[in-house]
């Protein structure tokens, strides 16, 4: 593999996106209107420890973004639920990471419970998958 | 394992051990087991594993791994204390170390044992989640919560709400830097809210409960007292306001330099006004759509914290226990006191408790404090609800366990970090220095005479022992391979929160104690009757005291 891999709830995929893509670099000023109008927004993570993308995703969804939301960068499978909960649909990971952390690990992460204290607080179903 | 709830039905239920959390903790323990396995198989690199293990409370120290277990809002049941004793005995060297942030640390852990320990803790409703790493840490509060005579409202239901909200919050697990929250519910701030990334001071206006919100406090290499950014935040706005602060910080905090990444630097660099505007703008945006806290859920949280005991007839303290009076704090209910059990016996490491002592505390708590135990930020243990009539029996029990040191608030009630004995970041020893100071002044017979004195010793610039807030603070540095102890004067962790000022050049470890003795003798000579060290210092200014410190040179 030398292409990036797209990870979704059902495992690894090759990139199948051919339309326009709006890129967000958390370090730069974000043009929110342009992002909201895009069919796919890709938010870059410089490192797994740089969590700015999670806030950006949540804010985009809160602002009404309904398109496809993709995280790009070296996130690990343990962060899959955080990405999904903040509004990402998928993660685009580099090939070396996909080789080291095979699809089975990501499938396991995707199947893991999303038990959520915040839903509990607000009286919503807190154990939904 | 002795994890069954104690026979005494009056014991407080483990507040966080409800079914939801029990399942959550079990899942997290299983997840961590999987992460350790994947680290060993190479699927996770050390760099990837590090933030994951830190988020589960596991640090790599000088000699071994250290596991930091959270004691949410400092409240433990007797059964939970016994679970800690078991960890100390089975997986450590028979003791644990209580910290200034209501955590307990086990210093000699094998990485391979960590998943079993987390399972064991989860069985008692305890965990190490978010006790480390760049995330929202254990929420701390007043050790006298629910008991203190000057309490406005018990802060613990709010602390628990914040704990739930911040646990595995998907947005805030990879912040620029760690984020510490403290909440005080009493008139007197015993939670050091001004030295936290975010401090909440509970207030009442008429019937309404709200919070003074303080942001950007912190010690370390750039000590700063927090700024008030809201004077009265209505209770219902608490979570959306926290969301606004955290998401603003997550985006605006610096990520290019870890020494400039705390929110105190964000605030200082942006300026208070711009920072407040950024938070308020985000708050205004999210507040209307923010789901309210389910009233039934919050009522259930409140119900976990039992009402204080019923009043009893007041009983005067027997004269034989006069020295123990320092360890007693006024209680909101007649005939009761809150008892601080000092973990600072002279000459032993401050904040340490053996497994046997933990079990003794659990037994005594069941017998005399409704099974409730608190851990204070002064690294002591509090039995919050003791009837005055039980004090002689409790005292006898403490004597038998070697826990009856009557030095709360005195010079030997020192806060000291682990320092060079354990900590990989340390530049000097702190525990041995604390031991030497405590025994020196005890042997001089001056300790009681000196009276209230807050002495804090950190083993490096990270200031884990809050030395800037000590009436006397000591910072151990490394000067060309030699330990050098820098003294700060005039700090205060209480309502009159203040950062101490550096007195001058550092002392060698040999010169430090004579210098402190000169300083304190100068105080005894200058003080007005009944005046505390800190008050004499404030009244007279530091010059006289600086002169006394350096009267012997700095390495004499
Ligand atoms: S102050 Fe320094 S030496 Fe002490 S515990 Fe903190 S990091 Fe370690």
Automatic annotation (TrEMBL), chain A:
InterPro entries: UCP030820. It comes from the Bacteria. This is DUF934 domain-containing protein.
Automatic annotation (TrEMBL), chain B:
It holds the Pfam family NIR_SIR. InterPro entries: NIR_SIR_4Fe-4S (IPR051329), NiRdtase/SiRdtase_haem-b_fer (IPR005117), Nit/Sulf_reduc_fer-like_dom_sf (IPR036136), NO2/SO3_Rdtase_4Fe4S_dom (IPR006067), NO2/SO3_Rdtase_4Fe4S_sf (IPR045854). The keyword Transit peptide does not apply. Residues 65-122, 348-400 form the Nitrite/Sulfite reductase ferredoxin-like domain. It comes from the Bacteria. Transmembrane segments: none annotated. It comes from Phaeovulum vinaykumarii. This is Sulfite reductase (NADPH) hemoprotein beta-component. Keywords: 4Fe-4S, Heme, Iron, Iron-sulfur, Metal-binding, Oxidoreductase. Residues 132-284, 414-549 form the Nitrite/sulphite reductase 4Fe-4S domain. SUPFAM superfamilies: Nitrite and sulphite reductase 4Fe-4S domain-like, Nitrite/Sulfite reductase N-terminal domain-like.
